[in-house]
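[step 3/7] fold_predict: job queued, chain A
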Amino acid sequence: MLVLVAPGQGAQKPGFLTPWLDLPGVTERLAWWSAVSGLDLIHYGTKADEEEIRDTAVAQPLLVAAGLLSAHALFAPGAEGAPGAGRPDGLANRIGAAAGHSVGEITAAAATGVLTDEAAMVLVRRRGLAMAEAASHAETGMAAILGGEQDNVVAHLGKHGLTPANVNGAGQIVAAGTAEQLAALAEDKPEGVRRVVPLKVAGAFHTVHMAPAVATLEALVAGVPVADPRIPYISNRDGKVVASGAEVIERLVAQVSNPVRWDLCMETFQELGVTTLIEVAPGGTLTGIAKRALPGVATLALKTPDDLDAARALIAEHTDPAADTPAE
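[step 4/7] structure written:
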């Protein structure tokens, strides 16, 4: 079974959209998404520096745009053009489930047909703006904790007033809180921890610091058109498969101020019988975790269009080609 996953904030790098513009139709699609989101995605994805794309209101739309572009390119009929918004055509029928990490959940929502591409871009832009505004009220941030036993690490974070904002599995937990709390953690690492690595984000996401953003998004999503997912959608809240589009959106909003349980998502992958995991652009983070947490599962990260042929070959090797033709 193939699982498609989408990375979260921190995966962006300067110029990471540049090679994708060489594919037919990508420039035009990005221009349209820029218009509906109110953000010049081509500029920020090709010319902006690291500090500019660290801005939450910029990084989040860029990541969703990159994920959707690479998914369209991967699953396009005949390996050219792209399937219609939310329509799993061709090889896409072989996807067994989809999930995204944090803002990557919006990418997954569009990939599974819950949201149109346009709705996803509007929603992620508003999400980024709301979270940036919430983060402006105090100096906050996040840091990855590598190593250590999970229960001990979580207890240690509590001692410093920090939140385990991302429980990623494979010996990785992301702490979130104020700059002072994170500085104290760097000086007093939990037992068994190898490193504490500051992340390229501008706020304490998935904590109570984001409560104002939740209220903003709750007011917005009431009018967003949604559909039920066409393939299993796995939620960050608890790793559960969610069959209702309305519930997917409710969870997307609530997740802004609640911890990401990627470890539970991976447990669900295993229960569903995952054999292959492909991470859409800018891939690397989630495949790295999967290599440690899901031994025996074939993984591939889409970083540039050069990875598309290898991804298609992996899909052909590990999935049933009969799925390409829908049943009558």
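[step 5/7] annotate
Residues 78-89 have pLDDT under 50 and may be disordered.
The CA atoms of residues 59 and 260 lie 18 Å apart.
exit 0
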